[in-house]
């Protein structure tokens, strides 16, 4: 589904190696790539519009799957500290394909979250994983934190 989210303002610095943006979750400047711009804007949207607590969100979360170290773009946790939502970001020029979903599903084999979202800044796909029925249900919009958190 096409999304319209506000464009937020960020702390940006020009460094010797290029432009960097301040990541409020990692509390440091990171290289400003097209994918990173999508991440920072979407994280701000989750916080400002959807009530997601920044203290329960992490960017670049390391996991190990079958001995291979991988990184989830953003993981949101519930109030008990259990993973609740994984978000995968792509640059606006990257189409969201089945391969993108395969990537996030591989991450979810480790984390076993109930919610998955994929966005390139223009398109957003959000799914609820129903483990009992062994199916994934697409929803119209990413829910507010209070709707999905325990």
Give a written overview of the molecule:
The chain has 150 residues and is an alpha+beta fold. The protein has one domain (12-148): tt1808, chain A. It has helices at residues 34-50, 98-111, 145-148; strands at 12-15, 18-23, 28-31, 57-65, 68-77, 83-89, 115-119, 124-130, 135-139. The strands form 2 sheets. It has a 6-stranded mixed beta sheet, with helices on both faces. A 3-stranded antiparallel beta sheet has the order 1-2-3, covered by helices on one side. Strand 6, helix 2 and strand 7 form a beta-alpha-beta unit.
Key features of this structure:
about 150 residues; tt1808, chain A; six-stranded mixed sheet; 3 helices; about 40% strand; globular
Structure class: alpha+beta
Mean pLDDT: 92
The strands making up the biggest β-sheet line up spatially as 4-5-6-7-8-9
- What is the CATH level 1 assignment? Alpha Beta
What is the beta-strand fraction? 35-45%
